[in-house]
From TrEMBL:
It comes from Haptolina brevifila. Belongs to the enoyl-CoA hydratase/isomerase family. SUPFAM superfamilies: ClpP/crotonase. This is 3-hydroxyisobutyryl-coenzyme A hydrolase. It holds the Pfam family ECH_1. Residues 52-74, 151-170 are annotated as: Disordered. Gene3D superfamilies: 2-enoyl-CoA Hydratase, Chain A, domain 1 (3.90.226.10), Lyase 2-enoyl-coa Hydratase, Chain A, domain 2 (1.10.12.10). PANTHER family: ENOYL-COA HYDRATASE (PTHR42964), POLYKETIDE BIOSYNTHESIS ENOYL-COA HYDRATASE PKSH-RELATED (PTHR42964:SF1). It comes from the Eukaryota.
Amino acid sequence: GRFVYAGGVANSKSMPLTKDEIEDIKAECFANDVTYNFEVLKDWDEEKVRDFFESGGGGEGSAPSSVVPTDGPDPFKEDMPKEVQWRMNADRTVAVITLNRPEAKNAIDGSIDSGIRLSIARVKCTPSIRVVFLTGNGAMFCAGGDPKGFQQAQASSKTPAPDSDGMTENDKSASAFAQMLADLNGLPAYTVGLANGSAMGGGFGFLCCCDCVIARKTAFFALSEVKLGVIPATISPYVVAKIGPSNARRMFMTGETVNVEKAKEIGLVQEIVDSPEALVKEAQKICDVMLLAAPGAVAAAKNLVRNVQYKPITPELMEYTAGELAAVRKTEEMTGGMAAVQAGKKPPWAAVGKLAFPPA
């Protein structure tokens, strides 16, 4: 289908769009049987919108890569670096993102960074995805930041980046990595870290951005940045949220390594398995459980946790939680779920029959 954009807005409005305008566009698209992820419309700039509108939805004006038809060709395939692999099941309900730099212990460099960003974009523009797995190839999940990258960042710490309002390349790369972690943490789908091996530094941070972590019993975990004269700055909000401030202080400041049993004790890991095959079996169990979980409710519950954790019980917090409950009572998901319970049937979102873990 074509994206039918309101001409008056396209030709007179500077971005970003307002919430009401996005709702109008959604209604127009639905009327023309077009399905897109509309959350990213707010990131469009005026030039992209006008070009897209004037071209009628094709050619140079085709939708930017962050807004694509859910049933169209893969616009990310050519850009995806080989250092990150993406696969998705036939129903487009389960995705697996695999760090594929085993010769370097899956250390995070520019290619891994780029691949993760593209994978996040793919998830965002495929609203049918219900579960996302993040894993690694080889003996290690992720060794953290590539030392060469740290050295390059240090060397560029006095060089302003092009078109960056005075920010250096060092500042720019740090800010971009922080945004990527926030995007990973904020995905609406249920995210699961499959720790095929040990995780350090940024790899530890990736796992902390996931909703659940399953790890092999041979895995170890460390935040050894202080031993290199660095700190785990950008990953810190997610680490503290995952393992708590007391455990974070100890791991941040000592740089010690913990085994998988200790990682489970402090809350990083939820399940421990014996082998790669067991890792896949556990992943499929999660898919089976998530089949019955309403996608919208999952996203709302995820956001709820972020907004209430560590908050004191105040009138403001009670007002917020009451508002969330009142809002969810108005959703089509609740209507369908309650009707299914009364009829003794599975809920509408379980109609796909199975959330199959994609084969390698």
